[in-house]
Design a protein that fits this description.
Layout: E1 2-6, H1 12-26, H2 30-33, E2 42-48, E3 51-65, E4 68-79, H3 89-104, E5 109-114, H4 119-123, E6 128-130, E7 133-138, E8 141-145, E9 148-152, E10 164-166
Parallel strand pairs: 4-5, 7-10
Antiparallel strand pairs: 1-2, 2-3, 3-4, 3-10, 5-9, 6-9, 7-8
Amino acid sequence: MIKSIKYSDLSPSETERLQHHIDTEFGHVPFVQAHVWAQPDWSIIKYEEDNTATFYNVVLREIALDGQNVKAAGINNVITPEAYRGKGYATTLLKATEGKLFDEWGCDCGVLLCADALVPFYSRLNWYKVDAILYYDQPAGKQLYDSNVMLLTPPGCSRLSPKEIDLNGLPW
């Protein structure tokens, strides 16, 4: 079963469970520890027998691509707990909910900040890497992101090729 839940509507126990998975997966990463992150607007969760089999969070925001504002769905924390890995659950979840980004939420693109090892995975799901300078906010001011940026455009639309992206807020 797949559920899309407003992050603010998650029960305290569900929020704690998702945060536990996030901390397990990314809590040891120095870059993650050193930054302030945006609170998600939505959590997309696939359940197996009432257990979280895979999930991701979404931040909806106006961002700037080469100075032009567009509505983006920022994807973060795509996580499959270890007991459920290797079953294609993340692929299934991302494919099954792709339309939500564009049809329901009216986004112009999806954006994710991606580790090198995951670029091939997302590429198989129609995400594509862009060579863009990406800025994001932190309490001390604008910061430059120096890793992979991937975009997803609606089916049938041309790929975007920005040279500069500003997240207009905290990273996700």
